[in-house]
Design goal:
Number of strands: 4
Strand order of the largest sheet: 1-2-3-4
Structural class: alpha+beta
Distance between the termini: 81 Å
Helix content: 10-25%
Shape: flat
Radius of gyration: 23 Å
Order of helices and strands: HEEEEH
């Protein structure tokens, strides 16, 4: 019987259950870096706008793709103690079919707030 070559393993070596149990678990809510592209081979998101909120926080609007489907996301990012920026879970995603209506709603909100400012209204009104 001829011998066949065994392919080399890909990735890190597998760990036993005991080794996995001894490994420190990440803190709840800890940042887990996202891959540069999705498993489907989608390109990395393209930043459209950045709105600084503070020295350590900003709102980013990005055009992204997931499993071949495009979308727009607005997400809060924070700066770590090391100076690197990381995304948080706080954000919203819009599908392509929702964009026109969402843009209209934002424009309506901007118009109403500008109108309130012209007339000196600072109190919140319920719709």
């Amino acid at each position: 019987m001829p011998l066949r070559a065994v392919p080399a393993p890909i990735g890190p070596p597998l760990r036993t259950g005991a080794e996995q149990a001894n490994q420190a678990a990440p803190e709840p809510g800890a940042y887990r870096p996202a891959p540069s592209s999705s498993p489907a081979g989608d390109p990395a998101p393209r930043r459209l706008a950045t709105f600084p909120r503070s020295e350590v926080e900003e709102l980013r609007v990005e055009l992204a793709t997931y499993k071949g489907k495009p979308f727009v996301q607005a997400r809060i990012w924070f700066r770590s103690n090391e100076g690197a920026w990381h995304p948080t879970k706080r954000g919203v995603t819009f599908r392509v079919r929702e964009l026109a209506d969402a843009a209209g709603a934002f424009m309506q909100a901007a118009d109403e707030l500008a109108s309130r400012a012209r007339f000196g209204e600072t109190e919140r009104r319920d719709p």
